[in-house]
Task: inverse folding
């Protein structure tokens, strides 16, 4: 949330209204084309109010909007993402992710903002880094939970798996942005989950439909 | 290759020199900042020569450079990509991909060009679509080859796996572009390959160490 000062409840509400209005504006016309005048008109605020809450002007406002969009990325994956403790929850998460990105289509509001702020600026990098860390942390917690109940092999490194799932989602989204279709995203999530699922401890009764994982090739 | 006319060998060589010089220029300073004057200076050609080979000027030239960069994306994965018929070859491919993108770092020349040409223009979309198709086709051929020799479960859908691997690579690269580190790319490739490897036909003896992701267990 960058530079939030101590605000009154009313002040916080106004600040939030400005952020949400700017978010909607950016989603409609892009970050570069969004002006403070547009934001004033849309949120029924004055320029002086905007500068009161965002002394750095448009750049500071866009950074706050990017932080808001980053929160939404995670929020839109709930309630599943924070509670990946069954295959049903993982499937629910998979569906939610696909739904979110299909809906956004070829527009990635956070990507647009990060690009506008400058992908390599410290502020943008900090924001991206934090989002990735939180996202991956929740996936890792989910993998660990599944390992504890014997649904994913305990021999796998949960952090590696979480990093891999992050890449899977990002790649699927990038290909959706480029092709307009969610095929890759769905194939990648389905494949990853099916393969993980197939690593479950072999002590349990096997479902013949599951993949024959656990068997190996001999090293010739 | 867009609008290549029938060229003499010398003409084809000049055209190629212009493309390669422009590619180097774009890699150094970006597509937007590259001018035809820069290209002339770098490739020892005149403006009239450039317009002879690229009557559409900078835009046509950048499109030809994008096609060249797209070819390089595939070429840089050879000789492995076209011959993914053993786990050694897959490992070689994995290493080559990681090496390529580590070397490029936070710069993606093709991405820069596609952005400059307009991500949603028909020409850019055709180029991206073709690259994805070829890339995915070669991965699919590799998966099929491994299924035929019993190294990947025949029950898996080779096209889904190939699409998933495409997303894995793209996601890893996107995260590399954003974080500057190849951790996600490596984790994602290692996880995908380890999980695929573990699906091999169950007739063979089991190796309890096999599921340990990242462990290189190939004693060839």
Result:
């Amino acid at each position: 949330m960058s530079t939030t000062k101590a605000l009154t409840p009313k002040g916080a509400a106004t600040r939030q209204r400005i952020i949400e209005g700017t978010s909607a504006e950016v989603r409609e016309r892009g970050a570069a084309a969004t002006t403070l005048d547009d934001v004033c008109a849309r949120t029924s605020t004055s320029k002086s109010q905007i500068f009161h809450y965002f002394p750095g002007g448009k750049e500071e406002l866009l950074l706050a909007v990017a932080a808001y969009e980053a929160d939404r990325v995670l929020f839109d994956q709930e309630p599943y993402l924070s509670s990946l403790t069954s295959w049903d929850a993982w499937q629910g998460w998979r569906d939610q992710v696909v739904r979110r990105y299909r809906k956004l289509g070829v527009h990635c509001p956070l990507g647009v903002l990060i690009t506008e702020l400058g992908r390599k600026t410290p502020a943008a990098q900090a924001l991206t880094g934090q989002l990735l860390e939180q996202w991956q942390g929740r996936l890792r917690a989910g993998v660990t939970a599944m390992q504890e109940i014997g649904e994913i092999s305990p021999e796998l490194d949960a952090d590696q798996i979480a990093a891999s799932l992050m890449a899977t989602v990002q790649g699927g989204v990038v290909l959706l942005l480029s092709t307009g279709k969610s095929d890759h995203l769905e194939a990648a999530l389905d494949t990853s989950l099916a393969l993980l699922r197939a690593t479950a401890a072999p002590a349990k009764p096997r479902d013949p439909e599951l993949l024959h994982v656990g068997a190996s090739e001999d090293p010739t």
Remarks:
- The radius of gyration of chain A is 21 Å.
- Chain A touches chain B through 51 residues (CB under 8 Å).
- Chain A has nine helices and no strands.
